[in-house]
Amino acid sequence: MAGAAIILAAGLGTRMKSALPKAMHPVAGRPMLQHLLAAVEPVFEHVVVVIGPDMPMLEATAAPHATVVQNDRLGTGHAARMAAPLLAGFEGDVAVLYADNPLITEATIRRLRARRAAAGLVLLAMRPAEPGKYGRVVTNGAGEVERVVEWADATEAERAIGLCNAGVVCAPGPDLFRWLAVLKAENSKGEYYLTDIVALARAEGRRVLAEEAPEAELRGINSRAELAAAEAEVQAAMRARALAGGATMIAPETVFFSWDTVIGQDVMIQPNVFFGPGVVIEDGVDIRGFTHLEHCLVRRGAQVGPFARLRPGADVGEQAHVGNFVELKATSLGRGAKANHLSYLGDAEIGAGANIGAGTITCNYDGIHKHRTVIGAGAFIGSDTALVAPVTVGARALVGAGSVITQDVPDDALALARGRQTNKPGRGFKGKKG
What we know:
Elements (H helix, E strand, L loop, with lengths): L3 E5 L17 E2 L2 E2 H9 L5 E6 L4 H7 L3 E4 L6 H6 L11 E6 L7 H10 L5 E6 L9 E4 L5 E5 L6 H4 L4 E9 H9 L15 H7 L4 E5 L2 H4 L5 H21 L3 E2 L12 E2 L4 E2 L4 E2 L3 E3 L4 E2 L4 E2 L2 E3 L4 E2 L4 E2 L4 E2 L4 E13 L4 E13 L4 E2 L4 E3 L9 E3 L4 E2 L4 E3 L2 E3 L4 E2 L4 E2 L8 E2 L19
Parallel strand pairs: 1-4, 1-6, 4-5, 7-11, 12-14, 13-16, 14-17, 15-18, 16-19, 17-20, 18-21, 19-22, 20-23, 21-23, 22-23, 23-24, 24-25, 24-27, 25-28, 26-29, 27-30, 28-31, 29-32, 31-33
Antiparallel strand pairs: 2-3, 6-10, 7-10, 8-9
């Protein structure tokens, strides 16, 4: 039978001290909501995201999934209830999850749903090293959940319990929405707690079970400090995967990946490298220190850095070199081509084996539109050259240093576009006083 997931994402993130909705804060370059959606989508056929009012960015991030607005933030039970009209008549299992728990894995969600077959209600629980103010899960001798008590309402004995509630629940849709409809706000916060459905299920004689998962997956993110801790957790896991996959990192703790970074085998990554989203690194690439990459492709055997920047659309060919203080944007660098230092190459196509001298720039923007520069295979661009796009430099052409190229250069031609040097005898420093 089909299942559905309700993701609660209406939180403002007051402790974040941010105008950005809490669920939009990124972990490893991706909003928390998208992390959770990626884990939920393979397990549940339907997804409803509960958002707050005036959150168009969050609504767009949730697409193509349905969203519903919780205008009054009256607690987690109230938020889950908002999804009821969109799932009216739904007979399958429904899980309720939280966008600020972005590290829950697909495997854990599958275990949650599978365990539901043995109980009327299943919740996720953990045993954190520091239980803090998490709600406590009270079980009986048979290991069944008797109740969940929020920290604010717990006795000292209950606060001593190590099993903590992660907030995620799964139950048959008709039961879940029936329980949600009768929740009462009889607690210290005057809110409708989702966890109160445990007592309602027990009152109907339903079996309630807890599925345990690691704290690292279930930790909530409500502050910048917790966001940083989650980032550290994710980065450590991604570094471990890169190392296990055949990459070498001299100082792994200084390398930062994005959620979708692809690293091949025999890749050398020197210290202080940052991978933004959308980066693919093929086998045998050497990435030197203090390099920044995003939405780019570096092909087999290429060398990038140190202090290089690859912006969106950069495509570095096999055996090509991008050196220190070189920036590429929407530019393809052909096989074996070299741009070894101090250059900006934007909206350009560089042919195989071409050499770009130090200080070369493509003048790609006229103040209104972007224009492309094409440099043919085997061409040599002298140092301190400005290529005013749109312009084409032919294959095997030679451009003299210090040129400003405004017209196409034919194949095999020499182009010189600079002022003539004039020497004035006797006008140097000789005889001048300091």
